[in-house]
Structure formats: C-alpha cells, structure tokens
C-alpha cells in the first residue's frame, strides 16, 4: 500500500511516496534524488550504501524506509558546507587520491564522519576498525586511512585555532 513518507535528510524535510517493502537506499536515490549514496551488494556486506541515522552509520540497503522516518538522516550530499566548501574528509580524500572508481567513497566518508564526530583523535587502528565494514575494490586502503587521519588532524587543528 502506497503512503507518503516524510524524511529528514541533511536537515531538510523530504516527502516521498513509498511502500512498506521499500529500502531506504532506494528511496534516498530514486525518490528523494540523492544519488551519492550507492547500492552495491544490497546485503549489508560492502558499506557502499552507508548513511548516518541520528549520527550512527547504518546500511541503508538493510533498512526499511518506513522505519527511518523519525530519524535524522545524513547522506554524502550533506557533508559539503552551504557555501560549497568541502568537508575536510572530502578534501583529504582528494588530496590523498583515496578514490579510483569512487563507488565506495560515499560510504567510506559517512562512516569516517561518524567516527571523527565520536572520536576526534582516533588512532590508525581505530580508523581501520571503524572502516572494516566498508569494502573498496579498487584503490586499496592505505590512502583511505591516510586521508581519514589527515582529516582528523586538520579538523583538530582548526578547532584549536578557533578556541
Ligand atoms: S549496498 Fe548496502 S552494504 Fe552493500
Ligand atoms: S574506489 Fe572503487 S571501490 Fe573504492
């Protein structure tokens, strides 16, 4: 049975006509039009579909859209500032060439954002553990880890300057 779903994505309210069986990844991509989030394995194994729900990374391919209506959702499109400035994680991925095809990148960024929000000074091991559910099939992980560590350092340095 079709119904109007109301979602809060990247701080904005979005309505979409949904059905009870629909997955959040498909609603975000096909009904809300935010195609940065990727659908790959569709079985919770690769992390490409990761979005944040109330600041926690979730697999949107394992989440029924109806259950996400009361949660604050954040997708990769929400990382950039309103003035177009990239999030330090996005900039660090560029600086460290941490993407090739980029299919995993949105999920990597969202998982890394949740980590840095919760733990601003992670060790490399912390980053590895946090990203262990995000699979990259083409660039390897060294540059991704370098990028996340660099972003953490830059975010902390900016905070110290602002304090
Ligand atoms: S597409 Fe959701 S975990 Fe792979
Ligand atoms: S950059 Fe291609 S899958 Fe990660």
UniProtKB/TrEMBL annotation:
PROSITE patterns membership: 2FE2S_FER_1, 2FE2S_FER_2
Pfam families named among the record's database cross-references: Fer2_2 (PF01799)
Name under which the protein is recorded: (2Fe-2S)-binding protein
Residues annotated as domain 2Fe-2S ferredoxin-type: 3-79
PANTHER family: OXIDOREDUCTASE WITH IRON-SULFUR SUBUNIT, XANTHINE DEHYDROGENASE IRON-SULFUR-BINDING SUBUNIT XDHC-RELATED
Keyword Transit peptide attached: no
Keywords, in A-Z order: 2Fe-2S, Iron, Iron-sulfur, Metal-binding, Oxidoreductase, Plasmid
A molecular function GO annotation: oxidoreductase activity
Signal peptide positions (record): none
